[in-house]
Amino acid sequence: MDIPRPEIARKKKIRRTIGVVVGLLVVVLVTVGVAQLKPAAPTVEFASIWPDTVKRGSMLRQVRGPGTLVPEDIRWLPARTEARVERILTLPGTTVQPDTVILELSDERVEQEALDAEYQLRAAEADLASLKVKLQSELLQQQSEAADIQAQFHKARIEAEANEQLAKEGLQSSLITQKSRVDADELANRQRIEQERLKIRGESTKAQLVAEEARVAQRRALYGLRQNQLESLKVRAGIAGVLQLVPVEVGQRVALGANLARVAVPGRLKAELRIPETQAKDLEIGLPAVIDTRNGEVAGRVARVDPAAQNGTVLVDVAFTEPLPKGARPDLSVDGTIELERLTDVLYVGRPAFGQEQSTVSLFKLLGPAERPDAAERVQVKFGRSSVNTIEILDGLKEGDRVILSDMSAWDGRDRLRIR
Question: What is the mean pLDDT of residues 147-158?
Fold first, then answer.
């Protein structure tokens, strides 16, 4: 028969309790350890990234932008009055001379104003002619009266002198002599007054003629303006060249100042490039440039930089220093590259998808063999000056390092990647 032993049962219970406690401690330690482990690095296919190697040497700074070829000598023909397009006589592509009529416009108001101005000019000229006759007649009348007074004065003076001589000889009374002297003095005053009146009359005549001639000149200028407006209804080229554009249609009503046609001198073209405003701060007149016309590259130099930006770009004119290839024509789309400067002995790399000059960004640096890297880690890189395809490195990388230039924003929260 079995005899119960309480000490053995107690030992078994203690061993079970210790085992449970140890098991719980192991579970807790494993859980904490797993929680503190970093997540496994994600895997990226090597074929899906765009790597580049950091180099040291000369770096050519350039800016690039699209543009078009435009004529250097161009003339827009604006509407000089509000009118309606009556006929289009010359089509784009036609060689024109300065007096070639391109469009005919019509406007009843302009025609009526020209006719009114002509009648007003004729009336003013007739009034001037009538005034000249009238003033001449009045002046002649005034001169006649002055001449009559002068004759009377001379006659009275001679008579007074004769009476004085007779009075000295005792052949004439003193009373008659005094009367003749008074008459002569009176006529002398009248002659002086008449001469003043004649002078004033002459000045008045000139003033009235000047005023009337000014009115006629005003009417003539108005008539010339109306005639020019009437003549401008026939839109002429104004220069010898090629008609490029007629942006209106027959029957269309055009406003004052609206562009009716564009004429350009053929053979003299320039490139108008649109450079992003963030890259235009170092542009200067005279910098060398290369224009890709899709049919060859042509060298040129910057001739003008627009002082203001429009829609995020700066307009830059490039004058060609070489002949253009065949097929180059106005409004042809081109691409232009402008050389800013050549940097020597600098550390540089290909320009990443995100990263502007004079900024600090994070890039993934490849680790492992150059032919087949197996990992990449995030590093902070400080950039300097930039070009179209390259950018200067100031800090964070050394010569020979390989970095990923493609967009890695999908791994912003990761500091390490596996490369497969």
Answer: 77
CA distances 107 to 44, 87, 101, 260, Å, are: 73, 13, 17, 15
Residue 320's alpha-carbon distances to 290, 299, 317, 402, in angstroms, are: 9, 6, 10, 40
Q: 3-state DSSP call for residue 57?
A: strand
pLDDT in tens, 385-419: 888 888 999 999 999 999 999 888 888 888 888 88
Query: Where along the chain do its domains lie?
Result: 41-69+268-420, 73-106+233-263, 109-231
Higher pLDDT, residue 33 or 210: 210
Q: What is the pLDDT of residue 387?
A: 86
Per-residue confidence (pLDDT) for residue 161, from 0 to 100: 73
Q: Is the pLDDT of residue 34 over 50?
A: no
Token digits of residue 242: 């090629």
Q: What tokens appear for 398 in the block?
A: 């050394």
- 39: tokens are 């997540």
Neighbours of 291 (CB within 10 A): 24
Distance CA(234)–CA(164), nearest Å, equals: 86
What is the distance between the alpha carbons of residues 144 and 148, in angstroms, rounded to a whole number? Answer: 6
Residue 278 structure tokens? 């963030």
Cα–Cα distance, 92 to 306 (Å, whole number) = 29
Highest mean pLDDT of the ranges 125-134, 146-155, 281-290:
281-290
Q: How far apart are CA 411 and CA 418, in angstroms?
A: 12
Which position has the token pair 């554009």?
Answer: 245
Fold annotation for 73-106+233-263: OB fold (Dihydrolipoamide Acetyltransferase, E2P) (2.40.50)
The pair phi, psi for residue 124, each rounded to 5°, is -65, -40
- CB–CB of 281/328 below 8 Å? no
Query: Which structure tokens are listed for 355?
Result: 């990263």
What pTM was estimated for this model as a whole? 0.55
CA distances from 381 to 192, 348, 384, 396, 403 (A): 106, 11, 10, 4, 10
41-69+268-420 topology per CATH: Elongation Factor Tu (Ef-tu); domain 3 (2.40.30)
Q: What's the chain's average pLDDT?
A: 84
Residues 6+ apart with CB under 8 A from 307: none
